[in-house]
């Protein structure tokens, strides 16, 4: 999807952005990911048990 | 755009949007009352008066809330947002939008009359070969056509903006409105096809039988994007309006656009995941659409990250420390933020359940059980509707030249939290009852005294408790709405439009390349649907006559 | 278009989880044969009563097949035939069903037997009844005013 064209102009900003402190965001989405996995695995087990 | 951002929505466009919102609030009240009575009936302790049928009421609930209330709110909201961010409508655009409103309203009234006359107790999915009165289908067709006319107004405004601002990236909210309506227009082709070419001729008696499998598949080609038509406006609010309300910045304009483009791609060629346990469709095609369904999860994962990042960045800019210190810095007293935020949280269990539903053979665990009802009440009636309430709190006073007072804000908080409690009660008991095998769309029944059915009844009573709390919330919402529309003090209520941080990278122009997006979307749809549809036509069984079993 | 490194980590993680889910259900479906009910056979909905095997609803022992029994159901507004049936514990059973009129559901509550019945199509699912007891069959697709009265019962006996 036209990625090459998009990637060209951004390099200058990269370092600034990666230094943004988003530790809490990463922790939050990982909790969300855990909820998704627990729900799915739990219901798959229920499916297998029936 | 910056000049536009300071302006109020033009009063003429404001009037247009408000017309939609009046229908929204009436639909909410009527549909909500129907829902309340349903939960009462299902508790086993109440019978409907005046010869009203349970399924007649259920049809009313589904049509009025899922089709009418949502469509009116969304069209009103999109007109307001586009007028605000791309500029006041021209007379021609506004005329189109009013024609759209008229068609939506006339269609709604036609369908509603047929439901009230008990000529259309077929539920809002109107699966053939149950056959309603032709006027019911014509009414629904007018609703769809009305939404097409309304989207034409938005597309015209967008085109006009592009012409006037060559080489610039379109306003984010307008871009999102265009994606939402493109997706909707492409999706509604499916339902329009089955209604115009199959169901209408058959209900008018012009043809005797109908291809049921084909009709269902065309319906679900529309039915899944329908739920994204509800969700995308909520995502618009979360991405581009909530940051302004809390005083922060949009995390990334480009990533927001990217996720909307992905939603356009993957919300349509996935309808078979509603038909996973039905005959006549090869399981390999079902699985291909299951894969595409899983891909539509990706933009939602991106959305979750962006939202948390917006909140964390804002909190840290206010001096928050530690891993979760930023959480406390958010404006918890502000209903415009807090109520949609609760909606966002509700989308987490909603999304988790959705992945389970779409997991191919695992669908047997939940298909058509009341788990499904619990699921879409969590996503639409909780995540999306709480967000719409959050919009109403500021958009209605903005459009009527009034303000949301501190006192009304407090009442709005109570209203949203009441909704939260009621829906948690109702939805969680539906989820559990569904896993125990309780069916959806069913009046109270003891199923011949079966022990399993007896286990379901306590959950149905919990649903009635939830339904009652929800209805209290609706009464509060009607009160807040009337106050904001007619009685709140005159003033200037802000229309919050999010901005990106200073020095943020420029949004690539490729996002306004519609040939590319529509082309990819078309390829995906053709790939996912051509062979299953040919199969359903070529290997069709003898058609079905119409039945009126209510 | 820049993406924060944490977002990349998150998306790779999420994508990986989805891929694992898809692999698990894909292998189970295509290699172990646990496909959702997707029978492609058709039938004239007006001639169900005279078409085999629906002319004789109920349980039948079969030989030389991957399953031991065939359990045939005919659905019509608002009942199933048979209204009650006994199945031996641990038997591998192919459930075969169809509708004589409108869409119906067919779910044995508490089991994975859950499929749509569509006029003109035959629905099939193979299952092993692992637990003894009564399993209520409910119609879980709206079919008319008596929809909630439509049920049957499978009794799994030793
Ligand atoms: Cu039925």
Q: How many helix segments of chain C?
A: 1
What is the overall silhouette of chain C? elongated
Report the average pLDDT across residues of chain C. 93
CATH uppermost class of chain B: Mainly Alpha
CATH homologous superfamily descriptor of the largest domain in chain C: Cupredoxins -  blue copper proteins
Number of strands of chain B: 0
How many domain units of chain B?
A: 1
Transmembrane segments (chain C): 9-32
Subcellular location (chain C): Cell envelope
Organism (chain C): Cytobacillus solani
Domain Cytochrome oxidase subunit II copper A binding (chain C): 55-158
Structural account:
The complex is a heterotrimer of chains A (50), B (550) and C (158). With 50 residues, chain A is mainly alpha-helical. Chain A contains three helices and no strands. Helix content of chain A is 80%, strand content 0%. By secondary structure, chain B is mainly α. With 158 residues, chain C is α+β, with helices and mostly antiparallel strands. Chain C folds into two domains: 1-36; 45-157, Sandwich (Immunoglobulin-like). Helix content of chain C is 16%, strand content 35%. Chain C contains one helix and ten strands; from the N terminus they run H-E-E-E-E-E-E-E-E-E-E. Chain C has one helix at residues 5-30, and strands spanning 58-61, 69-76, 79-81, 85-88, 92-99, 104-108, 114-117, 123-128, 133-138, 151-157. The longest helix of chain C has 26 residues, at 5-30. Chain C is elongated. Classes of the chains: A mainly alpha (50), B mainly alpha (550), C alpha+beta (158). At the B-C interface, helix 3, helix 7, helix 9, helix 10 and helix 11 of B face helix 1, strand 6, strand 7, strand 8 and strand 9 of C.
List keywords for this structure.
heterotrimer, B: 550 residues, mainly alpha, Cytochrome C Oxidase, Chain A, C: 158 residues, alpha+beta, Immunoglobulin-like, five-stranded mixed sheet, 10 strands, binds copper (II) ion
Summed up:
The complex is a heterotrimer of chains A (50), B (550) and C (158). Chain A is mainly α.
SSE order and pairing:
The complex is a heterotrimer of chains A (50), B (550) and C (158).
Chain A: H1 3-7, H2 11-18, H3 23-49
Chain B: H1 2-6, H2 11-43, H3 54-86, H4 91-116, H5 134-164, H6 172-203, H7 212-240, H8 242-246, H9 253-266, H10 283-295, H11 297-317, H12 335-357, H13 363-366, H14 370-400, H15 406-435, H16 451-487, H17 514-538
Helix pairs in contact in B: 2-3, 2-4, 2-16, 3-4, 3-5, 3-6, 4-5, 5-6, 6-7, 6-9, 7-14, 9-11, 9-17, 12-14, 12-15, 14-15, 14-16, 15-16
Chain C: H1 5-30, E1 58-61, E2 69-76, E3 79-81, E4 85-88, E5 92-99, E6 104-108, E7 114-117, E8 123-128, E9 133-138, E10 151-157
Parallel strand pairs in C: 2-5, 4-10
Antiparallel strand pairs in C: 1-2, 2-3, 5-8, 6-7, 6-9, 9-10
């Amino acid at each position: 999807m036209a990625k090459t064209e998009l990637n060209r102009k951004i390099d200058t900003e990269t370092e600034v952005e990666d230094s943004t402190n988003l530790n809490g965001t990463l922790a939050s989405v990982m909790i969300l990911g855990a909820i998704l996995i627990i729900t799915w695995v739990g219901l798959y087990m229920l499916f297998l048990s029936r | 755009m910056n000049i536009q951002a300071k302006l109020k929505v033009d009063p003429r466009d404001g009037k247009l949007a408000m017309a939609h919102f009046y229908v929204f609030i009436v639909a909410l009240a009527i549909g909500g009352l129907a829902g309340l009575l349903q939960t009462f009936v299902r508790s086993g302790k109440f019978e409907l008066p005046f010869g009203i049928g349970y399924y007649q009421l259920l049809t009313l609930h589904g049509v009025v809330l899922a089709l009418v209330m949502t469509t009116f709110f969304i069209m009103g909201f999109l007109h307001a947002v586009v007028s605000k961010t791309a500029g006041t409508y021209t007379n021609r655009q506004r005329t189109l939008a009013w024609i759209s409103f008229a068609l939506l309203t006339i269609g709604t009234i036609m369908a509603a009359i047929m439901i009230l006359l008990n000529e259309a107790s077929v539920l809002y999915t109107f699966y053939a070969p149950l056959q309603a009165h032709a006027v019911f289908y014509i009414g629904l067709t007018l609703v769809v056509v009305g939404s097409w006319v309304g989207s034409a107004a938005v597309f015209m405004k967008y085109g006009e903006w592009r012409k006037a601002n060559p080489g610039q990236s379109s306003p984010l909210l307008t871009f999102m409105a265009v994606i939402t309506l493109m997706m909707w227009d492409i999706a509604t082709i499916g339902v329009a096809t089955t209604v115009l070419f199959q169901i209408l001729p058959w209900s008018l008696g012009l043809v005797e039988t109908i291809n049921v499998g084909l009709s269902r598949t065309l319906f679900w080609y529309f039915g899944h994007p329908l739920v994204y038509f509800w969700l995308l406006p909520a995502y618009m609010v979360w991405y581009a309006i909530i940051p302004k309300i809390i005083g922060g910045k949009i995390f990334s304009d480009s990533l927001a656009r990217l996720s909307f483009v992905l939603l356009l791609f993957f919300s349509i060629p996935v309808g078979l995941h509603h038909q996973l346990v039905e005959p006549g469709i090869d399981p390999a095609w079902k699985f291909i659409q299951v894969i595409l369904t899983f891909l539509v999860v990706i933009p939602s994962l991106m959305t979750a990250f962006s939202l948390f990042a917006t909140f964390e960045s804002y909190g840290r800019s206010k001096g928050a420390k530690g891993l979760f210190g930023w959480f406390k810095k958010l404006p918890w007293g502000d209903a415009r933020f807090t109520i949609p935020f609760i909606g966002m949280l509700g989308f987490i269990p909603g999304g988790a359940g959705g992945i389970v539903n779409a997991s191919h053979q695992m669908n047997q665990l939940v298909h058509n059980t009341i788990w499904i009802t619990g699921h879409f009440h969590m996503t639409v009636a909780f995540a999306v509707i709480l967000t719409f309430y959050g919009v109403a709190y500021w958009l209605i006073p903005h459009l009527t030249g009034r303000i949301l007072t501190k006192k009304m804000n407090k009442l709005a908080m109570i209203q949203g939290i009441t909704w939260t409690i009621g829906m948690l009660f109702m939805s969680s008991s539906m989820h559990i009852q569904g896993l125990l095998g309780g069916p959806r769309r069913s009046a109270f029944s003891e199923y011949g005294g079966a022990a399993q059915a007896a286990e379901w009844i306590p959950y149905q009573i919990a649903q009635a408790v939830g339904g009652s709390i929800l209805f209290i919330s609706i009464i509060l919402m009607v009160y807040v709405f009337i106050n904001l529309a007619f009685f709140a003090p005159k003033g200037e209520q802000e229309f919050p439009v999010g901005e990106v941080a200073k020095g943020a990278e420029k949004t690539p122009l490729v996002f306004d390349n519609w040939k590319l997006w529509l082309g990819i979307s078309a390829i995906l749809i053709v790939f996912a649907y051509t062979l299953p549809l040919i199969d359903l036509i070529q290997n069709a069984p003898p058609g079905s006559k119409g039945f009126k079993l209510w | 278009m820049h993406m924060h490194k944490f977002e990349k980590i998150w998306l790779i993680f999420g994508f990986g989880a989805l891929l694992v889910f898809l692999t698990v259900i894909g292998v189970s479906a295509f290699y172990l044969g646990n496909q959702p009910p997707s029978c492609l056979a058709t039938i004239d909905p007006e001639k169900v009563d005279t078409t085999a095997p629906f002319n004789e609803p109920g349980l039948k022992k079969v030989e030389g097949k991957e399953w031991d029994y065939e359990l045939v159901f005919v659905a019509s507004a608002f009942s199933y035939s048979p209204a009650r049936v006994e199945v031996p514990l641990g038997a591998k059973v192919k459930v075969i069903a169809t509708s004589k009129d409108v869409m119906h559901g067919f779910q044995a509550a508490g089991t994975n037997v859950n499929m749509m019945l569509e006029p003109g199509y035959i629905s099939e699912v193979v299952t092993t009844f692992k637990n003894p007891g009564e399993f209520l069959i409910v119609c879980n697709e709206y079919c008319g005013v008596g929809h909630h009265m439509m049920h049957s019962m499978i009794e799994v006996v030793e």
